[in-house]
Amino acid sequence: MTYQETIGYLYDRLPVFQNIGARAFKPGLHTTRELCKALGDPQDKYPTIHIAGTNGKGSTSHMLAAILQESGYRVGLYTSPHLKDFRERIRVNGACIPEEFIVEFVADQKSNIDRLSPSFFEVTVAMAFSYFQRARVDVAVIEVGMGGRLDSTNVITPELSVITNISFDHMQFLGDTLGKIAGEKAGIIKNGIPVVVSEYQNAEIGDVMTAAAEAANAPLTFASNAFEVKFDKVSGGKMLVDVVEKASRRIVSEGLATDLTGSYQLKNIAGVWAAKDVLVSKGWKITDDSVKRALQAVSAITGLKGRWQQLRQNPDVYCDTAHNTAGLTMTLAQFESVCKGRKRFVVGFVGDKDISTMLSLFPKDADYYFCEPSNMRALKAEELQSRALEQGLVGKTFGNVNEALEEAVRDSSPTDAIYVGGSTFVVADIESL
């Protein structure tokens, strides 16, 4: 098969969560273990770092990968979903997996795929592990897909586990309370392996994390208890922050610059800083200079896109992949703070989300351009318009995000601002991204 035929085979043959939702969800590790066993268990051939959480795990994964790369290591990075190209999911030192490897891998594993009937995600996880071995990485940063305990990536025994935060998302799979969701995320904690939790959110979540770490005899750090990351300003397209050690009130990094300018990155940076300290204590050669070089160019080093990304000026256009209540709360607050004129929203959602709660976060004194992502789970723009009207949000419908964005730009004065989002897949459809 050619590369396009191979990708077509994967999408047609295997259940894909991003396309069909719950019907593609296949909890448990048996199939992934069988796929990996057939490959010689490549995931055991190099050190790994495992990252879970509701929001922020993608940014955290990219930041840690950038730091390790700038420290001289050859770094594998596995994340999901992709925005533009399947190959984005699997990178080594920022470069996407070659088409030739994907074709070869699928051809070699076709009999196992037919025998085991894995999900799309299970195959991509095994593919990533195999490629990282072939590429002779020094370390691989592995982002959890959903949850943690039963996620396909949870076949690894990492050097370090990181859990970013807990909020309501995928409740039909992970549970209907924050405590239950935290229990699923805490499932990546392994015996004796250090774990960093980026944020101490409340006692319900904190107690779950503490109990899981104690049961596994895993050293636990709540990064937000150890460090405070203070916003300074945004200058030259970079966010400047100070990292303060709480116990001593000592500034451990002043004027630290990052190209990831979303306000939610403050919490992620605390987790990354604590993770870096744990890795250093375990003998990894990471200097403050390498951290500074990495964080000011995460997008360039690792290819990260769609996290509070400014697409144009006058009018200012921002996009963000936030797709649940907790994520949207933070991005909409930041949008409110930067908008000097009329607020305009180009929004779309997938149909299996609790969009009523998310729509309630949007301001009524704004103009709306309702669209739908090019995704099988997409909520129709007309239904979104009707649901939004129930919340007092008024706007027009469009066939896709680019038509909606063009109209929003035409309607805008130079001082207006446009937010594009609601779903990862809406952002993925932006042609200029």
From TrEMBL:
Molecular function in Gene Ontology: dihydrofolate synthase activity; tetrahydrofolylpolyglutamate synthase activity
Keyword Nucleotide-binding on entry: yes
Residue stretches making up the Mur ligase central domain: 51-274
Superkingdom classification of source: Bacteria
Boundaries of every Mur ligase C-terminal domain copy: 306-423
Record InterPro entries: Folylpolyglutamate_synth, Folylpolyglutamate_synth_CS, Mur-like_cat_sf, Mur_ligase_C, Mur_ligase_C_dom_sf, Mur_ligase_cen
Pathway the protein takes part in: Cofactor biosynthesis; tetrahydrofolate biosynthesis; 7,8-dihydrofolate from 2-amino-4-hydroxy-6-hydroxymethyl-7,8-dihydropteridine diphosphate and 4-aminobenzoate: step 2/2; Cofactor biosynthesis; tetrahydrofolylpolyglutamate biosynthesis
Class in the EC hierarchy, top level: ligase
EC numbers on record: 6.3.2.12, 6.3.2.17
One Pfam assignment: Mur_ligase_C
Catalytic activity: (6S)-5,6,7,8-tetrahydrofolyl-(gamma-L-Glu)(n) + L-glutamate + ATP = (6S)-5,6,7,8-tetrahydrofolyl-(gamma-L-Glu)(n+1) + ADP + phosphate + H(+); 7,8-dihydropteroate + L-glutamate + ATP = 7,8-dihydrofolate + ADP + phosphate + H(+); (6R)-5,10-methylenetetrahydrofolyl-(gamma-L-Glu)(n) + L-glutamate + ATP = (6R)-5,10-methylenetetrahydrofolyl-(gamma-L-Glu)(n+1) + ADP + phosphate + H(+); 10-formyltetrahydrofolyl-(gamma-L-Glu)(n) + L-glutamate + ATP = 10-formyltetrahydrofolyl-(gamma-L-Glu)(n+1) + ADP + phosphate + H(+)
Keywords from the UniProt entry: ATP-binding, Folate biosynthesis, Ligase, Magnesium, Metal-binding, Nucleotide-binding
Role played: Functions in two distinct reactions of the de novo folate biosynthetic pathway. Catalyzes the addition of a glutamate residue to dihydropteroate (7,8-dihydropteroate or H2Pte) to form dihydrofolate (7,8-dihydrofolate monoglutamate or H2Pte-Glu). Also catalyzes successive additions of L-glutamate to tetrahydrofolate or 10-formyltetrahydrofolate or 5,10-methylenetetrahydrofolate, leading to folylpolyglutamate derivatives.
Protein family membership: Belongs to the folylpolyglutamate synthase family.
Listed name of the protein: Dihydrofolate synthase/folylpolyglutamate synthase
Organism: Dyadobacter fermentans
